[in-house]
User: What shape does this take?
Amino acid sequence: MASYTIQMHVERIQDAMKNIGVWSESTPAWVNTYDEKTNPDLWQWLQYIYLPMRLKGNASSSTYLAPQITSYLNQNPAFAPLLQLIIELDALTPTFHTSKM
Assistant: This one.
């Protein structure tokens, strides 16, 4: 059930990225040689690294995405739905429920 919920949230995030124009139509070359030292475009990283890892259950469950991505949104109202979806995806992270926020 949890994996279905994650899949649903990832699909909604992908749709939101397309709606606000940050979705890439073609895979960038850096994806094939990605390591954690690489600093790619945030939106491409989200699309090609983070979201696929979340779907596979391989993304770090100790780090929340929303605080990391907030500075890239520039308080643009068009990004608010995407941020909300990312917050919801973060809430599905097991450590969210045990953190002392």
